[in-house]
Protein: CCD27 protein
Organism: Toxostoma redivivum
Amino acid sequence: TGAISSLQRQMEIQESELRRIRSEKDLLQRQLRDREAQIQAMCAKFCTLTEEQRQEQITVMMEEENLNLQQVVTEQEAQLAEQNKLISELQETISQLKAEIVSTRLQLLEHKQAHKETQSQAEALQHNELQTRVALDHISSKFERFRNKIIQAAFSVEGIRDPVGELTDDEVLEAMQKIINERTEFRRKLKSKGSK
């Protein structure tokens, strides 16, 4: 947005400069028209003189006026050429600035779209995380209940002492393994005696 504002300010400055140059061009053209009007007025003045005086004065004044006009025309043509060149350069600069504004706006839209997509993905991830936490809590609760049942089954057997303090998973497994081994041994002995 800052880049667009900066480009727009530059474009406004260039357009203002273009208007100023065009105004100067119009002024020069008006000055040329004024010169032409002066020449016509002088021509009307000479019409009242005698033919010979008229010819002499006209010749002298026309030569002077021609020299002045040639100098003015040369200067104004040079100024107009320079101003036309400046106008072309300013128009080209304005076109480039407009293109940069369009490009910057497109980039801004792309960034906004990417930000929107990223935000949407982040929301989806947060939702998945919440679901995973709920599922994990549920599994943890089920596992804790199952572990408690194993502990009750393992330490409710006759001849096994009640645990002192909180049991580790290894201690629970060890107690279960002991029960399994004892039952397996007992079954083997029964089989060896022929009992079902």
